[in-house]
Write the structure tokens for this entry.
Amino acid sequence: MSDKTTSADPAAADIDHVDDSQFDALEVGTTAAAVTKGRSRIPWRFLGGRAAFYLFTLWAALTINFFLPRLMKGDAVSAYLSRNRNVTPEAAEALRTLLGLDSNKSLWDQYLNYWGMLMRGDLGIAITHGMRPVSQVIAGALPWTIGLVGLATVLAFTIGTVGGALIGWKRGSRWDILIPITTFLNTIPYFWLGLMAISFFAVKLGWFPIGKAYGIGTTPGWNWDFISQVIKHGTLPVVTIVIASLGGWMLGMRNMMLTVLDEDYITVAQAKGMPDRRVLWKYAARNAVLPQIQSFALSIGFIVGGTIVMEQVFSYPGVGKMMLDAVNQKDFALMQGGFLVLTLSVLLANILADVAYAFLDPRTRQTQA
């Protein structure tokens, strides 16, 4: 009977003789099943299209970066003159020329000069920081933001993603209580959570410093005294950021896991007798994490430029505070430099997310090819 069935149904015979070592349950029932190992080609058309998209996005962002500050009332020189009454009109005009705000030049000429400076790597002069180059000001603030908020975001993403995967895998267990708890903490405004943490852990208990990046009188350098001060001052902000953002990552991963666990390829993987750990991490979590990766790429904008609230609460010398000061004092060059860093970081993060997406999802590789 089985021989007749095999001869009558060649496809069934092929399935019966498939080598399990070449069988990937992740690709069952998906378009990725059509992709033959070792026969994929480089998707040049897709890569060219994505490169053109990101280049256009960069041009549009930098163009807005040029025009938007100039639509604001006043300028950096006027704000500077209001604080320094002893500046002569000749010196003020020379200062406007230095900052690219020469009234004798048309807006188009200023725009061309702006792009010329960008091509040379010249971001201009920060009038609010003692006429220092903008690149130096940003270089001094960027490590603090990346080191603090970047670390906190990576920790929240990792803990939330792994925790959400485990909670989704063990749905109905006592670990489900973590979802409403973390979601509730996620609804609390961050500035309030930060102030409460300072009030209890720094003022009342005295476990952590109230603010700043390091203690007064500490000399920055690669020595243990300075590093320990940075860790001590950064622990409370990192913990509060992780607590405030953990709920979104955990809830999103848990919901995606519940959806993925109902897919056919999970049933096939379990029917083949694969260990639960392999089904969880290689098949279920691997697909469920895809939306998380895109969300993480978008959160890079928060890492670089969305830290104003945190840096104000903890008096931290990062990019967020720098950009807020630049806006308040109408320092066009510093505003444009900060926005440039923000734009480049978001675009780079999205490019890396596209690469990770293609690596984790075989269907994406086939579609791109």
Observations:
- The longest strand covers residues 125-126.
- The radius of gyration is 27 Å.
- The chain is about 70% helix and 0% strand.
